[in-house]
Design goal:
This protein is mainly α and 142 residues long. Helices cover 76% and strands 0% of the residues. It is built from six helices and no strands.
Length: 142
């Protein structure tokens, strides 16, 4: 919030913002969103379409969750993780930095958040898969 407030004060109060603050805002947004995915999955706070789901029995919900994880989420995470490694490696290799003269250096650092957050998301999804599988076969007694 400090970065946003400082940028607003500089822009509106002094009619000059700093490129470094503007880029830092976007980098902080990216980090928050990427790691927020894992948090939302872990706390079951992600968005669902509950039109039919809410009326299903518990065992049906577990089957839907398991199939969704195996057929949709895990392949998506795998593709993003695998392709992001080259993305980060290329950025590191060329020492990518901002195009602006006063921009941020080390752009590979913020790009490395992609595989790190996908790894965390993968772990949280595997945990969810295990939990739903146990609940499916043992019921709510587990």
């Amino acid at each position: 919030m400090f970065v946003i407030i400082a940028q607003v004060i500089l822009r509106k109060g002094f009619s000059s913002g700093l490129i470094i603050f503007e880029e830092l805002e976007w980098h902080l947004y990216a980090v928050g969103v990427m790691f927020g995915l894992s948090y939302a999955q872990t706390t079951n706070a992600h968005i669902r379409v509950d039109l039919f789901y809410s009326s299903f029995r518990a065992s049906t919900k577990y089957v839907i969750e398991i199939l969704g994880i195996l057929l949709l989420i895990l392949p998506f995470i795998s593709v993003i993780f695998i392709h992001s490694l080259d993305f980060v490696a290329d950025s590191y290799r060329i020492n990518e930095h901002s195009e602006s003269p006063s921009g941020l250096p080390y752009r590979w650092l913020v790009k490395s958040v992609i595989p790190a957050s996908m790894l965390l998301l993968g772990l949280s999804v595997l945990s969810r898969l295990y939990r739903d599988t146990v609940l499916l076969f043992k019921g709510d007694k587990a």
